[in-house]
From TrEMBL:
The keyword Secreted appears for this protein: yes
Localisation per UniProt entry: Secreted; Lysosome
Keyword terms: Disulfide bond, Glycoprotein, Immunity, Lysosome, Oxidoreductase, Redox-active center, Secreted, Signal
Signal peptide, first to last residue: 1-18
GO molecular function annotation: oxidoreductase activity, acting on a sulfur group of donors, disulfide as acceptor; protein-disulfide reductase [NAD(P)H] activity
Name recorded for this polypeptide: Gamma-interferon-inducible lysosomal thiol reductase
Self-association state and partner proteins as the record states: Dimer; disulfide-linked.
Main function: Lysosomal thiol reductase that can reduce protein disulfide bonds. Facilitates the complete unfolding of proteins destined for lysosomal degradation. Plays an important role in antigen processing.
Family: Belongs to the GILT family.
One term under GO cellular component: extracellular region
Enzyme Commission number: 1.8.-.-
Domain of life of the source: Eukaryota
Main subcellular location of this protein, as a coarse class: secreted
């Protein structure tokens, strides 16, 4: 009963004050605001969450799958990941999924039941690939963390700080355990298998596939405007970000 009252009150408050009634008692990080009814109410974003959940439920299955085969220290990969792929995903994550495969032009050899990896830009790059692979296995915030690392001047040294920003409860020790242990070794081997299974095989990185397919045309379009490519390939109802609906973003917070 109390919850229902609170819900009605929140809906009303939301309709009265638009998006500006962000409650000061909100104890959740933004990524968790829509994860439950309680968090949505507490953070004053219920209306937004219900709408965004509704669009999500309509859109599952139709998402455009973008996969990036890359390596952590390749300058072209860093540029594409941070300035094209990540911002596009932020805007279009309702209609696209991203798969990151950090391996690229690396090589592997089996030695004493463990894989030994050799990377194009040396051991430092293998370390970066492995940190990112473990992150992808251990946290839902992997993509923002990886984008943060790849946009920093030092990809490896920034890792701890980037984790602290996006996933403060994730312990650096546990990442290192994965990086140095069998789990990381196994996960990296899976990246090797995925990369080696590419058809056509990759002859450079960053290498992009869209819905599992690679062609020079798709690659060129992804490199010049991934945003337009994803909007144009999405088969579901056009979303606002792609210029679809009459959704009005004009919602000002007045200076009173
Ligand atoms: C949004 O959807 C998620 C997953 O389906 C669900 O757990 C959550 O409670 C929903 N949030 C709201 C505010 O309805
Ligand atoms: C993480 O890796 C383990 C070990 O390979 C695997 O069983 C698990 O499904 C992976 N989890 C995710 C979220 O990728």
């Amino acid at each position: 009963m109390k919850a229902l009252l609170l819900l009605i009150l929140t809906v009303w408050l939301n309709s009265q004050y638009g998006g500006c009634s962000l409650s000061s008692s909100c104890s959740y990080p933004p990524s968790k605001w829509c994860s439950s009814l309680e968090s949505a109410i507490e953070c004053g974003v219920l209306k937004h969450c219900l709408q965004s959940n509704f669009t999500k439920s309509r859109q599952t299955g139709d998402s455009v799958e973008v996969a990036l085969y890359y390596e952590s220290l390749c300058p072209g990969c860093r540029l594409f990941l941070t300035e094209m792929l990540f911002p596009t995903w932020v805007l279009l994550k309702d209609i696209m999924t991203v798969t990151l495969v950090p391996y690229g032009n690396a090589q592997e050899k089996l030695h004493d039941q463990k894989y030994i990896f050799e990377c194009q830009h040396g051991e430092e790059e293998c370390f970066g690939n492995m940190i990112e692979t473990c992150l992808l296995n251990m946290t839902e915030m992997a993509f923002p963390i990886i984008a943060c690392m790849e946009s920093s001047s030092d990809v490896i040294k920034s890792a701890q700080g980037c984790i602290q920003v996006f996933s403060p409860q994730l312990r650096w020790d546990s990442i290192l355990t994965c990086v140095k242990g069998d789990v990381g070794n196994k996960l990296m081997h899976q990246n090797a298998l995925k990369t080696d299974a590419l058809n056509p095989p990759h002859d450079y990185v960053p290498w992009v596939t869209i819905n599992g397919e690679h062609s020079e045309d798709l690659q060129q379009k992804a490199m010049t405007s991934l945003f337009s490519l994803v909007c144009s390939m999405y088969k579901g109802p056009k979303i606002a970000a792609c210029g679809g609906s009459q959704k009005n973003y004009k919602n000002y917070c007045l200076n009173e």
